[in-house]
Amino acid sequence: MHWLERTELLLGIDKLNKLKNAHVLVVGLGGVGAYAAEQLCRAGIGKMTIVDGDVVETSNRNRQLPALVSTTGHRKAEILADRFRDINPDIELTVVNDFISDEKIVELLKSKPFDYVVDAIDTLSPKTFLIHHAVDLELPIISSMGAGGKMDPSKIMVADISKSYNCKLARMLRKRLSRLGIKKGVKVVFSSELIDESAVRLEEGRNKKSTVGTISYMPATFGCILASEVIRDITSQN
């Protein structure tokens, strides 16, 4: 029995082959991105480039796929690479253990013939530049907005970024992209649920000014929806 037998039963061999021949770039392997990448792997995506320079911290264990007591201090990208090869030994993986800065983004996007880009970055500047340059290079991209402070999965939606609302990250991203001439044409996953301000703690840290409370299932659900959009878009192509 082939491990993708049930996927083939659902999709058919032609669509399954589209997934096997596709190369997806996933940038950011935290609460959202790791789940997105794993669902892509389990669906039979043949090639993936995964990018994250972070290591597992104790505070990640409430929501992040690679975060265990035994993996604390280990590189997220390497943990997931081992996991994905254990799921699909035939997957072609490119592992980038790095935080991509603005100047590295174009180089990354041009490094492979990507069929799709998944943006799961939680820092505004590289997120903006990744989307900007993906659009400029005419690469299909889907971007995750903020999953923090949200608890109701039924409020998660997929829409053009111009239609997103009740999300601070989306609002700031829209402003930055607008300055770069991008006002629409970017697919995003966002939640319309309002955040209780008591779930936000102000603090100064690396690349952030606040910490937002999170629950286990919300980033995972965002990641699964990202993967579903990528899979359905790739399999619907002629």
TrEMBL record:
GO MF terms, alphabetically ordered: tRNA threonylcarbamoyladenosine dehydratase; ubiquitin-like modifier activating enzyme activity
GO biological process annotation, one example: cyclic threonylcarbamoyladenosine biosynthetic process
THIF-type NAD/FAD binding fold domain mapped to chain residues: 10-235
Pfam entry (one): ThiF
Name the UniProt record assigns to this protein: tRNA threonylcarbamoyladenosine dehydratase
Organism annotation: Draconibacterium aestuarii
The organism's taxonomic lineage, starting at the top: Bacteria, Pseudomonadati, Bacteroidota, Bacteroidia, Marinilabiliales
